[in-house]
Specification:
This protein is an alpha+beta fold. It folds into six domains: about 210 residues, Hypothetical protein af1432 (Orthogonal Bundle); about 130 residues, Beta Polymerase, domain 2 (2-Layer Sandwich), CATH 3.30.460.10; about 80 residues, Beta-grasp domain (Ubiquitin-like (UB roll)), CATH 3.10.20; about 70 residues, no CATH class; about 90 residues, ACT domain (Alpha-Beta Plaits, 2-Layer Sandwich), CATH 3.30.70; about 70 residues, no CATH class. Helices cover about 50% and strands about 15% of the residues. Strand 9 and strand 10 form a beta hairpin. The chain is elongated and about 115 Å long. The N and C termini lie far apart (about 95 Å).
Length: about 750
């Protein structure tokens, strides 16, 4: 780099800072970067700067200085080494095109190139305007990065940016960066166990986004610091003596809660600063051998709780079962002097290091067993650490396998959705909305036209194309992979079939009416069965699809009607004129406590639905009417499906209780048979002989040798009804007996 360019690229203050940061990184990184490697990296950076390819960011920060500061964070506060350092330093020259990842792989190794690819890939996600606050975006970021070091570097870079923009003039950009830190990077740091950096990100975000709240709490903490320090000292002093007397190696420190944590408590508890009592925690850190860690932690716990009364509801044992992100500690809350609650955390040096520095600290404790892991991949790290001689080499080689069963895709507006691996464009359409799925004709994936069956990949941006003339097809079931899409397609196909069947039946009835021929259900059913159709729906579908000629079928129907003949050797009197009518109104007669409604409630007023006339013993449910009363329906009521689908929130459980107490319920039966008044007499005779069954009404219609009659009877329970139906079906000449 020429002197002129050097003086232009760096301000006088930046020159000194640049040299100081180089020296600091060289000191803490040790020998992980060789002298010739460090000089080669610097040469590449200065070449790119001289060509004008390296530019300052929105806040005017120098990219070379920024990268050095980030590299120092990942080494000093995360424990990462060569590959991470080189990747950070080369990131900007790869991003600007001065050097390709293939060139990086040739000169610095495939591991460095892999990290750089992950950094470039994750940066591309921001171009899709994602909703960063969503858990889905955090999961996508983890999945997209592939290598866990990419995520750690991104967190370190955001921590550094947040530290450097305290005096930045671009307020809008600072708020955006602070918002991302709060909603994306702090939760990621928490997930990885980086509690120290997570707290720093949260505090700085609060400082930039809620300036007044931040400084209000900070001033209050400063004002009460002397009294707080005095109280902490008084609280610790007797514990200190007891621990020393027990021969434990330890040190104790008091830790004031973060400003962000205090602000969250104020919001949650809806109180001011003075209303927050647990502003600090005491941390006892033991210097224990690994196999004595739990024993000595519980020993320290016993000493503390012997002196101060513990709150049993506030004991948190993360020794026996550590958190999924590796956190191990023992927390308790005790009543200290002046009646104040004090949180006490007990852990070892190893546990404290892991708690402060997260996953990176694990790499320093080779061979240490741990019971749990961060999702599936942290478990893999620990298991591998126990069986390798070089944990740093393992770290460099390890690749994340997070969310391998999921894919995350964007809408054109940046909304993010999670789908199972292998999901197609059609799956995504149904995931958005059933109507969108049913009308889907295809899509655009990353701006290119795609078919319904195209499989989606992580990070795809998908636009669904629809048409009002589109409808689900049977073949769609072979395209989709999600159960939601499959169920919706089946439901839509059934609805289409039902509409087509209704249209086909209406067509047949209309053509019969035009020929002045009555529609006779029994004859129709017999003919359809004789034609080889096991289900009526199948027959109507053939009519709807045009595979069966309607006019030819009607001709066969007319022939079937004409073939119905009466026996010639018996004089048969028609049942047409047989009518029995009881004028008195049928009243529901039942005891209110025979039904148990919802949560074992008895004695609730209810009515039996007239659409299905339930009786004692039927499987039933209750439906809350608009007037507030409850109507009882049979579970097989014709209206049951509609009530559950459209008004599921008004459906309540109901069941019959105890035994039937002589209550009589009205039910209607339909009887079809040969047109003979003698059959009707036999039916009425059977009913009259039954105990506690009253015949209230009979209405008979006859046509072409068959009669169809409706009988209304009062009966006390379902079992008696089934027995009656069985007897009626044995009457000679009766073809069908069905309950309405």
């Amino acid at each position: 780099m020429s002197e002129t360019t050097y003086n232009t690229f760096f301000t006088p203050e930046e020159k000194d800072l640049y040299q100081a940061l180089k020296a600091q990184l060289a000191e803490i990184a040790g020998d992980c970067l060789q002298a010739n490697e460090a000089s080669a990296i610097e040469s590449l950076l200065l070449q790119a700067a001289e060509k004008g390819q390296l530019v300052r960011d929105t806040f005017g920060l120098n990219p070379l200085i920024n990268n050095l500061q980030t590299a120092i964070i990942v080494v000093d506060e995360m424990g990462m080494r060569r590959a991470a350092i080189v990747s950070i330093l080369l990131h900007d020259i790869v991003k600007c095109g001065h050097m390709s990842t293939d060139e990086v792989a040739n000169q610095f190794g495939a591991d460095v190139a892999g990290i750089l690819r992950g950094l470039v890939r994750t940066a591309s996600l921001y171009e899709k305007n994602p909703t960063i606050e969503s858990e889905n975006f955090r999961n996508l970021l983890l999945s997209f990065a592939e290598d866990m070091r990419v995520i750690l570097i991104m967190i370190a870079d955001r921590v550094n940016t947040m530290r450097q923009i305290k005096k930045a003039d671009n307020e809008e950009a600072r708020l955006k960066v602070a918002s991302e830190a709060a909603y994306l990077y702090a939760p990621l740091a928490h997930k990885l166990g980086l509690y120290k950096l997570k707290s720093e990100l949260e505090d700085l975000s609060l400082k930039y986004m809620q300036h007044d709240m931040y400084y209000h709490i900070k001033e209050k903490l400063n004002a009460t610091k002397a009294a707080r320090d005095k109280y902490i000292a008084a609280f610790i002093q007797p514990i200190d003596e007891k621990l020393a007397a027990a021969g434990l190696k330890y040190h104790i420190k008091g830790r004031t809660k973060s400003i962000h944590s205090i602000s969250q408590k104020m919001k949650k508890q809806k109180t001011n600063f003075e209303g927050i009592y647990d502003l600090f925690a005491i941390r006892i850190i033991l210097d224990s051998e690994y196999d004595k860690e739990k024993q000595e932690c519980w020993q320290a716990y016993s000493i503390v709780t012997d002196m101060y009364q513990p709150n049993p509801k506030r004991l948190r044992d993360w020794l026996s079962i550590p958190k999924s992100n590796g956190y191990e500690s023992l927390h308790t809350t005790v009543m200290g002097p002046e009646g104040k609650w004090v949180e006490v955390q007990i852990r070892t040096e190893r546990m404290d290091d892991i708690a402060e520095r997260g996953l990176a600290a694990h790499w320093r404790y080779k061979g240490v067993k741990s019971e749990t892991g961060l999702d599936e991949w942290l478990t893999s790290i620990r298991e591998a650490l126990e069986h390798t001689d070089d944990s740093m080499e393992l770290m460099d080689q390890f690749k994340m396998d997070l969310y391998k069963d999921d894919v995350f895709v964007f809408t054109p507006k940046g909304d993010l959705f999670k789908l199972p691996h292998g999901a197609t464009v059609l799956d995504f359409a149904f995931h958005i909305h059933t109507n969108v799925g049913c009308r889907c004709t295809g899509g655009k994936v990353n701006g290119k036209h795609a078919q319904l069956r195209q499989i989606l990949n992580n990070g795809d941006q998908v636009e669904i194309l629809t048409s009002n003339t589109q409808s689900p097809k049977q073949g769609w079931l072979d395209i989709v992979t999600t159960s939601k899409a499959r169920n919706k397609i089946r439901q839509s196909l059934n609805e289409i079939e039902s509409r087509q069947a209704a249209f086909a039946r209406e067509t047949i009835e209309r053509k019969l009416k035009n020929r002045k021929i009555d529609y006779d259900e029994p004859t129709m059913m017999r003919l359809i069965k004789r034609m080889g159709y096991k289900q009526v729906k199948e027959f109507y579908q053939k009519i709807a699809d045009g595979l069966l000629d309607v006019n030819q079928f009607i001709d066969r129907y007319i022939q079937a009607i004409e073939q119905i003949t009466e026996p010639h050797d018996v004089t048969i009197r028609s049942a047409e004129g047989y009518n029995m009518q009881q004028d008195e109104q049928i009243k529901q007669s039942f005891s209110g406590d025979v039904l148990v409604i919802d949560q074992n409630l008895k004695g609730i007023d209810f009515k039996l639905a007239g659409c299905c006339n339930p009786i004692y013993g039927d499987e039933v449910f209750g439906f809350v009417t608009t007037g507030g009363g409850i109507k009882i329906h049979r579970c097989d009521c014709p209206n049951a499906h509609d009530l559950h689908t459209r008004f599921g929130y008004r459906v309540v459980k109901a069941r019959w209780a105890g035994k039937s107490k002589g209550s009589l319920y009205p039910i209607t039966l339909t009887v079809i048979g040969h047109d003979d008044i003698g059959i009707v007499n036999n039916i009425t005779s059977i009913i009259s002989k039954e105990e506690n069954i009253q015949l209230r009404n009979i209405s008979i219609n006859s046509h072409d040798g068959l009669f169809s009659g409706t009988l209304t009877v009062l009966i006390e329970e379902n079992a008696r009804l089934q027995a009656l139906i069985k007897k009626l079906r044995t009457v000679k000449g009766v073809k069908q007996v069905n309950r309405n």
